[in-house]
Predict the 3D structure of the following.
Amino acid sequence: MSVKTILLAAGGGNGDLVDKLAATATDIADPADAEIILAHVFSDAEYDEALDRLNLSPDAEVTPSAIAQRKTDVRDLVDRLAESGLDVTTYGRLAGDASRGERLAEIAEEVDADMVVVGGRDRSPAGKALFGSTSQDVLLESACPVTFVRAT
């Protein structure tokens, strides 16, 4: 299977996973003909906090993609992937009434991704039940193969 388009999920708190996510995407992708779609899905509260930190009003003409590009972990991933010669496009999206994982699966379908790469941590069954799991939702909702990168 040729992997031309990889959706790389860049979630909040993935700072410790940046190197592992970048290495995984770089190992899978061929710089000559692959594209990385770097996606971050905001909760409404997270997006409002980002607008506040940037001193922007909710009415400002700014997109979730523009805000995602300003996130440290997203910038770090873009820099590491660019060093490998990969083409990177950043997508930001609001979760709205869906889970982050569902939105990531929607983006994967929109961009016709051949694979999704998502990072995460081990969590107890109770933790998953109480807080949900973006990685689990991506695994269940994506129409293409998903590679899970575990934090150490």
Notes: The chain has a mean pLDDT of 86. The longest helix spans residues 72-83. The chain has one domain: 5-150. Residues 74 and 100 are 16 Å apart (CA to CA).
